[in-house]
Specification:
Layout: E1 9-13, H1 19-25, E2 26-30, E3 34-35, E4 52-53, H2 57-67, H3 71-75, H4 79-104, H5 114-147
Antiparallel strand pairs: 1-2, 3-4
Helix pairs in contact: 2-5, 4-5
């Protein structure tokens, strides 16, 4: 057992007979919101107990579901997921907005390409519908992943759930 004075834990003693035996028979139990983090594995005897402050699941849920665009992953310090999600969802958002504006912009010219404009208009509307559907499905999946606490932070630690 390796508990430092900076650990967030309390000691539970087992069959305490003398003050000297307390050191060997005490067990460091983490306070709420803290856990033991070890680079080598869970059963590392040299790990400092209860020194890792867990990220809170409700903040990650709010950032990801309400704000979106990967900000829940940014809170969890998963920067790769954040950048991928931010770039894709921002791109989807911009493509849908700007293509809708450009398609509906009517040029004041000759109407001899009316059929071509209708085909482009319908094709772009189908693609916009597909992109919006992808965006909505992605938000629903995030709602369940973060709501059910199935995500971990950058150190692969569980999230603190006080719900």
């Amino acid at each position: 057992m390796k508990c430092s004075k900076f650990s967030q834990c309390y000691y539970q003693t087992k069959n305490l007979k003398t003050l000297n035996s307390q050191i060997f028979e005490a067990e460091c139990i983490c306070n709420q919101g803290y856990d033991t983090f070890s680079l080598t594995g869970e059963n590392d005897p040299n790990a400092v107990k209860c020194c890792y402050k867990l990220k809170e699941v409700y903040l990650a849920f709010i950032y990801e579901v309400i704000i979106g665009f990967g900000f829940g992953y940014l809170y969890l310090e998963n920067y790769n997921y954040f950048f991928i999600k931010f770039i894709f969802q921002t791109s989807i958002f911009c493509i849908v907005c700007f293509s809708g504006y450009c398609i509906n912009f009517d040029y004041h010219g000759k109407n001899k390409d009316r059929h071509v404009k209708n085909v482009i208009y319908r094709t772009c509307n189908v693609w916009n519908f597909i992109l919006v559907a992808i965006f909505i499905v992605w938000k629903i999946i995030d709602f369940f992943i973060f709501g059910l606490n199935l995500v971990k932070d950058t150190n692969r630690m569980r999230l603190y759930n006080e719900w």
